[in-house]
Amino acid sequence: MALLDEIGDFINTEIESIAYPEKPAGLYDPIRYTLEGGGKRLRPTLLLASCHAFCGDYRRAVKQAVGIEMYHNFTLLHDDVMDRSAMRRGKPTVHVKWNEATAILSGDTMLTMASQLIAENAKDKTANVVDIFNRMGIEVAEGQQFDMDFEKRDDVTLDEYLEMIRLKTSVLLGCACEIGAIMGDASPEDAARLRDMAIDMGIAFQLQDDYLDTFGNPATFGKRIGGDILNAKKTALLIIATSRDASLHSIIKSDIPDDDKIRKVSDIYVATGATDECRRLIGHYSEKAVKRLDEIAISSESKAIFRSIIQKSAVRNV
Amino acid sequence: MALLDEIGDFINTEIESIAYPEKPAGLYDPIRYTLEGGGKRLRPTLLLASCHAFCGDYRRAVKQAVGIEMYHNFTLLHDDVMDRSAMRRGKPTVHVKWNEATAILSGDTMLTMASQLIAENAKDKTANVVDIFNRMGIEVAEGQQFDMDFEKRDDVTLDEYLEMIRLKTSVLLGCACEIGAIMGDASPEDAARLRDMAIDMGIAFQLQDDYLDTFGNPATFGKRIGGDILNAKKTALLIIATSRDASLHSIIKSDIPDDDKIRKVSDIYVATGATDECRRLIGHYSEKAVKRLDEIAISSESKAIFRSIIQKSAVRNV
Predict the structure, then answer these.
(1) How many angstroms separate the CA atoms of B195 and A92, rounded?
(2) Where, residue-wise, is CATH 1.10.600.10 in chain A?
(3) Interatomic CA distance for residues A270 and A241, integer angstroms
(4) Whose CB among A139, A165, B69, B318 lies 3.0–4.6 Å from A206's, allowing a Cys bridge?
(5) How far apart are the first and last CA of chain A?
């Protein structure tokens, strides 16, 4: 995957060379801090690979790629304020390192900078990519709101959950592919197919995230195993298992020792078959994503790239 | 000013008929609440009047007008969170009525909805109006950051203050006029002239705001007279007066009774000539705004409309 490495290096160089205005430093320092904090750069990689798949020149979509990463980091910054998270990628979050007003305003500015980048050098495609980007932004906000609403509900269904992660996580991956494809002169139909591939991949990705939070390898997972259980987070595992064993409610809400709670709940996940069901869903969505690739007229080299991204996102261990 | 009344009714009807999605209610209820909370609708009025001035049909820019009001209300919503303000237009602010996460997310959504509206039906002008809108958004955020930075400084100069209010308040009025003019097929030169008119008007408007906070008529002002003094807000009056009488610092920071403080400080504003200087600046910027109108090739009816808006904004008593 020489091309994938090349795209990865390219996007990192581009993000490091963003020219922020000098003043006011209180506005731009937190933006640089957030953008340079690392991350997988999955979204710009998808965008550039999608552009390349149709025109062989990923550089054409460089502004849009930086824009989509800027947007993603804006959502992380504001989500961390809303969730009161203190750490992100091993560093203090912006509202902890600076303050909340700074986190809100820097995030707002990142959203506007992202819009600017998406429209930059888009030429006759401007109206189209701006429209796709803004519709995605509305959907992601709706997903975040559903996620917050679910915290207060005990009757969330699996379908509601899958729709929430589609909105909160997947449509951004879909948007990255669609905008990249359009910048590479794909037909609207092919751009939509690549978008749908990424949406399925995103659902598999998020379900895998849920799975690893409980059943990941502690040595490689990075976070404490069982965090979702301790936070009573409405994940696919919890929703499926609760529908099969109502006693889960009281265990999740009890104040037994953390390790006991994690062990008891994960045992129920296995016993009720929720774990198997979750693995089945991950397989279902990643296979659907791979199948969608077959319908798109791109080179086998490009298909291999997307298959490897699906593999890394959905069937990963870390 | 029959046209001005017509435009006012039109924009209110359009804002009331925005079709919000039903779900998630937790996201859209606060947006409707904010938008329907009233306000002068100054920005969409400027936008529509600008469009009308060049093409005689203000309806052409209806989406952009709703978009600019949506944007303005987004800034109020997030500013209220940052400033921890509990009331706005006589009603509890969103972060008080709902909660802070809701205020952040609803505001983010309003910014994206505003971007959508600005680009809607803009046809071949899309790239241009989107670019003007995004550049404005960055400047407004910079202005808000400077305003927050100034709270912690005692050496803010008048020039710095004027630049801050240009960014925080004026460029949005300028953007409204420029986008309206472009939607009405104005030349880029005329659109820029109308923008500069509104920027000067906005500076006069903000200086008048500062002036009325201390010297307004308590019967008509709506808020408590002297609020800026009690909050030690860096206004033009305080900055000018401090440069002429350094003792002001200690009075502003002292804990003498509120009424004494307001009386003492406003006496110094008058004695140092800061009050006269502030009135002179208001006159200077509103006259500059009126003069700019002369350079623009629009009907005398349209010029009268803008003159009346300048009059109402900058030479008002309430």
Answers:
(1) 42
(2) 1-125, 187-318
(3) 9
(4) A165
(5) 20
Nearest chain A residue to B139 by CA distance is A109
In a mutational test of the A interface, the residue from B142, B152, B163 whose CB has the highest number of chain A CBs within 10 Å is: B142
Chain A: closest CA distance from residue B134 (Å): 6
| Alpha-carbon separation of residue B48 from B39, B61, B203, B286 (angstroms) | 16, 6, 21, 21
Tokens matching residue A54:
């149709």
Cα A231 from Cα A224, distance rounded (Å): 12
Q: Which residues sit opposite A88 in a β-bridge?
A: A91
Closest residue in chain A to residue B145, using alpha carbons only: A27
What type of residue sits at position B79?
A: D
Kindly report the length of chain A.
318
**Does the distance separating the beta carbons of A82 and B112 come in below 8 Å?**
no
From chain B, the residues in CB contact with A127 under 8 A are 119, 122, 126-127
Percent of chain A at pLDDT above 90? 92
User: CA-CA distance, A213 to A101, in Å (whole number)?
Assistant: 31
CB contact under 8 A, B141 and A78: no
Q: Which residues of A touch B109 (CB under 8 A)?
A: 137-138, 141
- pLDDT for B97 equals 98
Domain covering A1-125 in this structure, CATH number: 1.10.600.10
A interface with B, Cβ–Cβ < 8 A, is 21, 23-24, 26-27, 78, 81-83, 100-102, 104-105, 107-109, 111-113, 115-116, 119, 122, 126-127, 130-131, 134-135, 137-138, 141-142, 144-146, 148-149
B138:A112 CB<8 A: yes
For residue A317, the model assigns a pLDDT of 63
Q: Return the pLDDT at B317.
A: 63
Task: Check the CA dihedral B7-B10-B15-B19 and report its sign.
Answer: negative
- Backbone φ and ψ for A86, nearest 5 degrees, come out as -95, -25
Angle, helices B100-119/A126-151, rounded to nearest 10 degrees: 160
Topology given in CATH for the domain delimited by A187-318: Farnesyl Diphosphate Synthase (1.10.600)
Q: In the numeric block, which tokens belong to residue B227? A: 């609020």
Among B32, B34, B24, B112, residue whose Cα is nearest residue A142: B24
Which residues, in sequence order, are bridge partners of residue B197?
none
C-alpha–C-alpha distance, residues B72 and A113, integer Å? 18
Report the topology of domain B2-314.
Farnesyl Diphosphate Synthase (1.10.600)
Encode pLDDT of A38-83 as tens digits. Answer: 889 999 999 999 999 999 999 999 999 999 999 999 999 999 999 9
Q: Which residue has the tokens 């860096």?
A: B234
| Phi and psi, residue B206, nearest 5° | -70, -40
Report yes or no: A103 and A95 within 8 Å, Cβ to Cβ: yes
Please name which of B103, B84, B122 lies closest in space to residue B34, comparing C-alpha atoms: B103
Q: Which residues of B touch A107 (CB under 8 A)?
A: 108
ipTM: 0.96
Task: Quote the radius of gyration of chain A (alpha carbons, Å).
Answer: 20
Q: What are phi and psi of B92, to 5 degrees?
A: -60, 145
Residue in chain B closest to A140 (alpha carbons) equals B109
Which among B23, B101, B112 is the nearest to A134, CB-wise?
A: B112
Averaged pLDDT in 10-residue chunks for chain B of 318 residues? 93 97 97 93 98 98 98 97 92 96 98 98 97 98 97 95 98 98 98 98 96 90 87 95 94 95 97 97 96 95 96 74
- Where does residue B120 rank: exposed (0-12), middle (13-18), buried (19+ CB within 10 A)? middle
Between chains, do B146 and A111 touch, taking CB under 8 Å as contact?
no
